[in-house]
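User: Before I run my own analysis I want an independent prediction to cross-check against. Here's the chain; please return only the structure tokens and, at the end, one sentence I can use as a sanity check.
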Amino acid sequence: MGRPKESLPFGANTMLGRTAEVLLECADPVCVVARDREQRLPPLPLRVVIACDERPDAGPLAAIATGMRALLQRGGTLEQDAAFVTGCDAPFVTPAVVRLLVGELSDAACAVPCVGSTLHPLCAVWRLSTLPAIDLALQGGIDAPRAMLRLLKTREIDETLLREADPHLWCLLACNSPSEYAAALRLQGAGDGN
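Assistant: Structure tokens:
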């Protein structure tokens, strides 16, 4: 796509900058996991906590573990607290979606959208208490968030309930290709993705 996804322009911001600003409307702190110390991140709000991935290039589950550890080490966050997890390439996440997932968490370890038969672990709420289980899974060669969800008490949020917060399910859109990025820009430009 010509540049790293997190730095792609999106409206008056970057993809990652927009996501951080939206999450600050409903979560504090917000933690961004950078690949390593050399990764150049776009400008982010000052309140954003930045952590460097403990296992660079080991995938999103390892990055989730890094972010959880950073939140716990920072202080003011407890193991029973939960974190909303998303990627830098999901520009249509909204506070309403985050609040819905948090509200549905109950006594589960995770609250994750399930559309059709597909779980969306990168638009989900994970309890920080899952960190030891994630670390064990990573040590055992499990590196996929969906595989991890099968090992945890997971509350699946069906499409009907998710549509109450996001009628078009745009929160699940990710920009993994130039065509997906172009489609997201069209939605945003039309004002449909706000």
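Sanity check: The longest helix spans residues 60-74.
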